[in-house]
Structures are given as structure tokens and as C-alpha cells.
Amino acid sequence: MAALGAPIADGLFVGGPEPALIGGRERASGRIVFPCPADPERYEPVRLPCEGRIWSWTVQRFPPKSPPYLAAEEPFQPFALAYVELPGATIVEARLEGFRFEELKIGIPCRLVLVPFAGRTSFAFAPIEPVETS
Q1: Three-state SS string across the chain, please?
Q2: Predicted confidence (pLDDT) per residue in 101-114, tens digit
Q3: Ramachandran angles phi, psi of 52, nearest 5°
Q4: How confident is the prediction for the chain on average, in pLDDT?
Q5: Whole-model pTM?
Q6: CA-CA 20 to 30 A from 94: which of 39, 79, 117, 123?
Q7: Minimal CA–CA distance to 20: which of 43, 49, 55, 40?
Q8: How far is residue 50 CA from its own chain's centroid?
Q9: In 3D, which of 18, 46, 27 has the Cα closest to residue 113?
Q10: Closest CA to 36 of 78, 90, 83
Q11: From its phi and psi, is residue 30 left (phi > 0), alpha (psi between -120 and 50) or beta?
């Protein structure tokens, strides 16, 4: 994969061979949220699981309004968006990459990936490739 740009925002994820989203664990209750709030007295950063399952999904078939979103330089392409349940942690909202729209359904396993977005690096969830057995 080509080199990725700077992250779309600080503190959302860590890169490397095993990227992970950074959530926040509420110190008083243990509840995990994403992203990690900028309140170190109340929340401690935690790495979230890199695999999960589609909890709910939709397909965005028209461009978002501008503003607040910036108009894209390229023609709009529909994309899948999902809530992904990360076991033992929380549910996060993210784009889906590498899925065919007609095959999407609740419960499909997926894995965190880093992707280029508007000249920067963002995150998405992609299918987990089936393991071949001999």
C-alpha cells in the first residue's frame, strides 16, 4: 500500500502492522467510549479490539451537504457506513471498505484497516478474509 498521510485527527488510532482505535475507559465506571475524551482525570486511553462484527449498516448514496462537509474533488461514489461492535469494548461508527453492498448483513466479521481519505489517513473496517484449510 502507498504511504498514508497524517491522521485525520490526533488520538483516534495508532498505526503500524496492527492498527488499533484508541477508546477511553471511564475511570469511575469502566465504561468504554470512542473516541477517547480529552479529560485525563475522568478517562484513560485504551486500545480497542481490531476485529468486530457489523451491528448495523447503511449505504450513503448521495453526497453529504456542504457545509459542513467539503465538496469532493472527485465525483461522489456511494459508500457503506456501519456501526461495528468491538467485543468487550464498545460500538463504533465507521466506513466499510471492500464489501459489496448486496452482501452486507448484520453479524459479518470485520477488521480495522487504515485508509487514505482526502489526503490524510482515516480508518475503516474491511472483511476478514476466510482462512484456507488444507
Answers
A1: CCCCCCECCCCCEECCCCCEEEEEEECCCCCEECCCCCCCCCEEEEECCCEEEEEEEEEECCCCCCCCCCCCCCCCCCEEEEEEEECCCEEEEEEECCCCHHHCCCCCEEEEEEEEECCEEEEEEEECCCCCCC
A2: 999 999 999 999 99
A3: -160, -160
A4: 89
A5: 0.86
A6: 39
A7: 49
A8: 9
A9: 18
A10: 90
A11: left
- The answer, yes or no, to whether the previous bond of 68 is cis (omega within 30 of 0) is yes
pLDDT of residue 134: 42
Q: 10 Å Cβ neighbour count for 63?
A: 13
**Residue 95 is placed in which grid cell?**
466506513
- Contact, 45 vs 39, CB < 8 A? no
> Would you list the domain boundaries of the chain?
13-127
Q: For residue 13, is it left (φ>0), alpha (ψ between -120 and 50) or beta?
A: beta
- What is the arithmetic mean of pLDDT over 52-73? 81
**Residue 62 vs residue 2, higher pLDDT:** 62
pLDDT at 63 exceeding the cut of 70: yes
